[in-house]
Amino acid sequence: VLTDPVVPCGQILALHLSIPSIFFLRGLPCSFDLQATQCPDPPSYVPRTFTDNSDHMTFIQRVENFLLKSSESFLCNFAYLPFELLASDVLHRPVTMMELLSHGSIWLKRMDFVFEYPMPVMPNIVFIGGINCGKKK
């Protein structure tokens, strides 16, 4: 199943049918993509989304980054609770969002490692950054 994991209905279907899933995404809120693939994601090194921080942060930026990462877990657990309930009903067992996303076979990320901040990734994450670029005139 080729799916976008922001709305994990495709992943629920893939788990129900016991078939592999390929995720096609730019990024997930709350770094779910990094957590599900067990990538290292230290808040002192990897900047959070929407902060405009680079990987070279000052101490104050690192503290801000840490506080934002701490608050993300509360907001995202609340936002993805309906999908966890739906997955638990369909799969007939308790399921968390991390468990749903951890079954992804390949993660096709629409970002370029060169232009984004460098981050550690797992072997099943493939960067396909040029897919959104238009032809040069």
TrEMBL record:
Domain of life: Eukaryota
Main location: membrane
Keywords: Glycosyltransferase, Membrane, Transferase, Transmembrane, Transmembrane helix
Subcellular location: Membrane
One Gene Ontology molecular-function label: UDP-glycosyltransferase activity
Cellular component terms (Gene Ontology): membrane
A Pfam family annotated for this UniProt entry: UDPGT
Membrane topology: Single-pass membrane protein
Family according to the record: Belongs to the UDP-glycosyltransferase family.
Name of the featured protein: UDP-glucuronosyltransferase 1-5
